[in-house]
Structure prediction request, 468 residues.
Amino acid sequence: MSDTPFDVIIIGGGPGGYVAAIRSAQLGLKTACVDKRSTLGGTCLNVGCIPSKALLQSSHHYELAETEFANHGIEVKGLKVNLKTMMGRKDKVVEDLTNGIAYLFKKNKIEHLIGSGKITAPGTVEVTSGKNKQTITAKNIVIATGSEVAPLKGVDIDEKQIVSSTGALKLTKVPKSMIVIGGGVIGLELGSVWRRLGAEVTVVEFLDAILPGMDAEIVKQAGRTFKKQGMKIKNATKVTSAKAAKGGVTLTVEPAKGGKAEKLKADIVLVSVGRRPYSDALGLKDAGVATDERGFIPVDAHYQTNVAGIYAIGDVIGGAMLAHKAEEEGIACMERIAGEAGHVNYGAIPGVVYTHPEIAAVGKTEEQLKADGVEYVVGKFPFSANSRARANSDAEGFVKILSDKQTDRVLGCHIIGPGAGELVQEVVLAMEFEGAAEDVARTCHAHPGTAEAVKEAALAAIGRAIHI
Prediction:
């Protein structure tokens, strides 16, 4: 490797880090990216977003064949799960995508260093791979190390019987029963995978409802839907201990606000109580970089830490722990380092739960608007009144648009229904341009299409609903 200092060293090759590296190279900056994995893409691509979506798709196909095909006049005999093939497909998807990022690094002449990065001083990074160490220097260092699984006191993860999301993506057989600790996005997605494939799944959530932070009306509908699908949900319940044995895992649980304890047993327990910033092993204290009490790194509007020339993006700085949020921050950070005007609109970042039906949201919830004292209008439209959804036998859920009562500006959108993650994007774009509900309502939508439900919700927000 050349001894010439880099313009930018990025620590972390996940969505934030690798996208930042590519944008940095595009801007003409000599760039290095340090990651302890040999394959780029971080947690998201290797053991998170991508493999979980591959399994969600495969398991959804299986469930459709098992429960829905007959309604379409398609008869299936001898249906069974070949888990080895399913997992192989998942691994191939990951392999192809990680190879694609490696190609982009070569194309953009980005130096990829495999090893753990540690900041030993401003402008200096030590890269350790096994017994080998090397020191590299740069004008700017960007921390993009993301997050890791948050532990739960009294529950020790062994990735065999008590698993994190990583272990849940590598099970070699379908368990008869699974308990998911945590009713957030990851727990519900992976719980859905194994429920579809035949496991009896119970979700144990500490708070009063699953999907904390999402619109309450959406959460209520989601809870009904998941229970109807066969998923058991125990809200307001605290897990105090877990004991793994040959016959399975026994959990001790009790009401979150106190009360009589009870035992729950399952073959597999998935711990999914959130994620914490990966910042402990970066040498931040010695480098003078400040962190808060939870390990997050505070940054200014340019993503610079309290130390000049050291920046941070993505999960490690807090906010929504989403791959696409990290990507946008990576691009904005690089553009500002290069003297350009990067910007992220945090009010228009969508979030998606890839269960079935999908759940998607952008902007404010009703609860947030009420707390802020904002006067708003609600426009809703059910998929049961949407012709494409009915034709597809996939008509559960609704679209909900929130707009300012005075200006009609779109303040938020919440969808539970078919393809919600794609449908929400037109509202994201409308919000990016500070559009009004009327703008969405007056936009021509192809018929028949599920996107018409978004148009109809916008029409309802301005008092002009046609099909309800």
